[in-house]
Amino acid sequence: MTQKRPTSFGKDIRGNVATIFALSLIPLMGFTGLATDYAKSVLVKRRLELAIDSAALAAVRRTVEIINDGNQTQAQAIAAGEREGKAYLAAQAVRIVDASLNSSDVTVTIKGEVVSSETRYDASVPTVFAQLFDVERFQVGGSSGASVTLPPYVNVHVLVDISQSMGIGATAVDQEIIRNMQVRRFNGGGSWVGSNGCAFGCHILQSEFKSNNPAYPTKSTYQMAHENGARMRIDVVRDAVGKLANSLLQREDKRYQVALHTFHSSFNTPLELTDSASKAEAAIGNLGPSTREGGTNAHVAFKQLQGIIGTPGDGLTRLKAKAIVVVMTDGTEDTQMEYPDRDGITWDPNFVYFEPTAGDWGGRIQSFDPGMCAPLKTRGVRVIALNTKYLIPVGDSNPKFTAIRDWLYWYIENNMAKCVSGDGDYYDASSPADINRAIDQIISSISKPLALTH
Predict the structure, then answer these.
(1) What is the torsional sign of CA 64, 279, 308, 376?
(2) What is the pLDDT of residue 340?
(3) At what angle do helices 277-285 and 233-249 cross, to 10 degrees?
């Protein structure tokens, strides 16, 4: 019998796919596991990067806090910032599972006004499936940085006009209250009551208001205006100056000092440079119209101010602070002066004339002289001007007021605009709302918010 050879087995291809799949399954699962381990390492890296981002910011913040506190050296501030960054990074890394932080470093540097931090890390992520390929860990690492530009140290000198024109009623309603309020006048041994007849609350005590009767205390029309509920231009300006000082001195960065200077026919400094908000508040709270002289001599004020400010620095330290002058005036200079201890009007012997001028009861009035600002700007002082526009009493045809309204306004506005350092440094305001809005803009232009860049 002839035996047949099993040739059909070699030709039978059934089950080949299953065999090939079985043979490729192991490496396929290995690569899938490798991808899973890699995806996990990417997730861990992202979490660590968020941690070092936050650590870099924390280091900068702490350094800036120490610098602003002013009680430690720059080196101590840097060391404190680095400790803060490292502690923050270590605390965050512990919360990240499946990762081992091998090394980390936080470096803080200060160059000029810029505080920077650089954070680096190196970590390992254990694998599961990748161990089939003899890969026990994936190494991950990275760096991050943060910086902040500190605002410079700045001395802000506020120069306020306290001449008698600042006693005008702040609004038309206030002017009517002051004009119609009943006041007691004294003459010889008698007295009588009648309307004030003037829209100004004068702080210089005229003889007709000096009491000759203990039953009636001596009061200026400025005091009486307040008693009757009126607000005057100086009250609005006082609030504006207070808002400016408080905004700058309450900042966390503690980079500002404020001084208050006043002028009428004379110059005075009620508040020398200070970083104390309470001290500034007390001095500004006493701001009122002059009690003697009462004219307006801005030339004297600017000359005195030049000697006080000197040459400003680059702002990197308090001793080298930059300087800003904020001028608040209605821009009108006036030779007229009065005194509480004698009747009559006199003329300012130190007045510096600047054309064009107009008559004022035998004296002269004139617009703001922009040349007064030039020496300050030449030294690098930034000059900001708020033109608290001269209020003309409603219905008053006084030749002085007519001259101001009809043509001096134009000179005042243009000359004060020429006084300032930049196009955005001139402000024109008349109503209380306008003055408040202008002071908000001035505050914003002086103080820039502390901003972190990453």
Answers:
(1) positive
(2) 73
(3) 170
**By the 8 A CB rule, do 63 and 110 touch?**
yes
In this prediction the pTM is: 0.77
Question: Length of the chain in residues, anyone?
Answer: 454
Angle at 373 between CA 427 and CA 410, to 5 degrees: 50
pLDDT tens by residue, 397-439: 778 888 888 889 999 999 999 999 998 999 999 899 999 999 9
Domains and CATH numbers, the chain: 16-149 (no CATH), 154-171+231-447 (3.40.50.410)
Residue with tokens 């001269």: 390
Give CA separation, 51 vs 118, 243, 440, in Å: 13, 40, 38
Quote the pLDDT of residue 27: 63
